[in-house]
Design brief:
Glutaredoxin; 7-stranded mixed β-sheet
């Protein structure tokens, strides 16, 4: 009788564990609560504390990058972002980095420490809603001049994909 109770408890525990693992997998495999197709204007504070908005920061092509100083993957893609900025900023690309650090001071320190030449703003709920509330970072959105999202990269940026998409947008 005791062996039967142990088997039932183990089976129930296994089912519960499987449900938890499935929920975790589902969360990771679908990082957006809603997948945006275009960008609407949003306001944010830049790292100096000044208010700005998407319409002021966009270019003929805009790469919006969600990042944070505490994120190893975000740091790993920094050389790629700088390379893309160097190659395409003269052709109409603007990069707008959204810092998910805890406060503006940390975001400003991150910008200075990495010699980031583009605008860095601090996240807020309006901005995150406009970007589909992704649950992972880094996430990058390549937006054309009509505010349509042409590419979304969750995880470290694929340099070749972004390069090819920018060539099409900025030709």
């Amino acid at each position: 009788m005791r062996l039967k109770s142990v088997k039932i408890v183990l089976l129930a525990g296994g089912i519960i564990l499987a449900c938890i693992l499935f929920a975790a997998y589902k969360e990771i495999s679908h990082p957006f609560s809603t997948m945006p197709t275009s960008i609407v204007n949003f306001a944010a504070l830049d790292v100096s504390g000044e208010k700005t908005d998407y319409n002021r920061e966009k270019g003929y092509a805009t790469l919006i990058v969600l990042s944070a100083s505490w994120c190893p993957a975000c740091m790993a893609e920094m050389p790629t972002l700088k390379k893309i900025h160097q190659e395409f900023s003269g052709k109409g690309l603007n990069i707008l980095m959204v810092s998910e650090d805890d406060n503006l001071k940390a975001a400003a320190k991150f910008k200075r420490a990495n010699s980031i030449p583009w605008t860095v703003v601090h996240w807020n709920y309006e901005l995150m809603n406009a970007l589909g509330n992704p649950r992972v970072i880094p996430v990058s959105y390549l937006v054309n001049g009509s505010d349509e999202i042409v590419l979304i990269e969750a995880g470290i940026l694929d340099e070749q994909k972004v390069h090819d998409a920018l060539e099409k947008i900025l030709e």
